[in-house]
């Protein structure tokens, strides 16, 4: 079999595996199964095969999947460094490996030495970065990979490029706030949606302040992505990779905000777990698309800027 096919298949398996890890991590948090294996790691309550309790099975299944995906990612890393000629692929697989190891270590520490909510919120953030890197790695070996190194012919202004990167960094802050809401168990701080406890601006204390801050940050993210899309629409063709990525980002952030309302409205009902997993799924897709948009924006410098930088300076 052609080595490029192996690279593509293994990168796809790594990406799907990381996506599964994200969802399973959210499931562990939402079902409060983080202590399902007690204080043991890598064993579960002193056993290689855990007792058949729901919490232990959920937690141990998560650990097992992380281990399997880690092996797949390791094999992918070796093949990329040995056989791929693309520097960006090596950066992406290296980043994925680094953050996968980091989030695994943080997960082990959380079991052996319980961490604060501030630290545990980083666990989801590191997993999200691992997924984003594996997504970019997979795209390298698809028809979208060419835009990562040569662009698609679009020329964006410096302001548009800076705005894209600013939105990407800000989206990570919003993700962290969402993870902090989960790990502080503040989800019930705001009853009702879009109002919070029947108020436009509630009393900013305790869980209410945490949840409302996340809601406000998510709304600002939606407006920021809308502003970026409008800028790109004026500078890029509808069929370009830049335009399509910006459009998908706008669609995903819209549904992400709605899914946040869905989570709130299902508190106390059986659909709450489904709504929470949907919320995690959408933010993962949104962050991945924003990362792709940010990378390809680096290849879209306006020709006047390129000429200005390339022109020799007079003494």
TrEMBL record:
GO terms for biological process: heme A biosynthetic process. This is Cytochrome Caa3 oxidase. It comes from the Bacteria. GO terms for molecular function: metal ion binding; oxidoreductase activity. InterPro entries: COX15/CtaA_fam, COX15/CtaA_HemeA_synthase. One of its GO terms (cellular component) is membrane. It holds the Pfam family COX15-CtaA. The chain crosses the membrane at residues 12-29, 64-84, 91-113, 119-141, 162-181, 212-233, 245-265, 271-295. It is found in: Membrane.
């Amino acid at each position: 079999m052609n080595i490029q096919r192996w690279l593509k298949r293994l990168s796809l398996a790594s990406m799907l595996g990381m996506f599964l890890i994200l969802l399973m991590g959210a499931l562990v948090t939402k079902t409060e199964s983080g202590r399902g294996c007690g204080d043991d790691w890598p064993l579960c309550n002193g056993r290689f095969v855990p007792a058949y309790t729901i919490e232990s099975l959920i937690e141990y299944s998560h650990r097992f999947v992380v281990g399997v995906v880690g092996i797949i990612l390791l094999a992918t890393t070796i093949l990329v460094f040995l056989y791929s000629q693309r520097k960006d692929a090596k950066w992406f697989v290296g980043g994925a490996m680094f953050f996968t190891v980091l989030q695994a270590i943080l997960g082990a520490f959380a079991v052996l030495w319980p961490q604060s909510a501030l630290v545990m919120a980083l666990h989801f953030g590191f997993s999200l970065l691992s997924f984003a890197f594996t997504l970019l790695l997979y795209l390298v070996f698809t028809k979208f990979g060419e835009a990562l190194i040569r662009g698609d012919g679009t020329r964006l202004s410096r302001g548009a490029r800076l705005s894209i990167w600013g939105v990407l960094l800000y989206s990570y802050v919003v993700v962290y706030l969402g993870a902090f809401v989960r790990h502080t168990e503040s989800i019930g701080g705001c009853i009702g949606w879009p109002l919070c406890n029947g108020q436009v601006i509630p009393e900013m204390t305790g869980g209410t302040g945490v949840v409302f801050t996340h809601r406000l940050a998510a709304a600002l993210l939606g407006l920021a992505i809308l502003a970026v899309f409008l800028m790109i629409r004026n500078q890029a063709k509808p069929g370009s990779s830049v335009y399509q990525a910006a459009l998908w980002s706008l669609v995903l952030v819209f549904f992400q905000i709605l899914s946040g309302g869905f989570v709130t409205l299902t508190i106390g009902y059986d659909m709450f777990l489904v709504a929470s997993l949907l919320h995690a799924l959408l933010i993962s897709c949104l962050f991945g698309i924003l990362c792709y948009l940010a990378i390809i924006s680096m290849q879209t410098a306006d020709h006047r800027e390129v000429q200005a930088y390339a022109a020799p300076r007079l003494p």
